[in-house]
Specification:
By secondary structure, the chain is mainly alpha-helical. It has a domain of 93 residues. Helix content is 86%, strand content 2%. The model has no long low-confidence stretch (mean pLDDT 87).
Length: 175
Amino acid sequence: MQAGSTMPVNEVEPSAFGLTAPAWIALAMLAVFGILFWKKVHVAIGKALDDKIKLIRDQLAEAEALRKEAEALKAEYEAKAASADKDREALLERARDEADEIVAKAKTNAEALIERRTRMAEDKIAAEERAAVEQLRAAAADAAAKAAARLIAERHDAKTDAQLVDQAIKEIDRR
């Protein structure tokens, strides 16, 4: 044989009972499958697969239930958060209203206090004015009485006094 020549080489495949290696492998495979079928392995495999499917379905149902529960909890907490926000807003609004009421009441009370004190001061001033007028009148009356007594004493004698007294008595009798 020379290099570069392409001559077919005949090789003989080993065989037993007229079957080649691939045929024996196929026959062995058929025998294994037959034994597996005869021992009902396919039923056991089907049952194991059914059990696994049932387990997976149960896990999926549990996961779905957990997901729904989580969504319900989420919705509940979102509602609570919204409610808390509303409560907070209502509380703030109520606090603002109460603060406004307190400020308005304090303003009203302060105005009433100022008005009362003004009225008290005016009453006190008026009382002082009345007292001053009364003192002035009393002083004027006292001064007039003293001046009249002095004038009477200077201008009248006992005879004139007697005539005045008699005249006053007559006027009292007429009344």
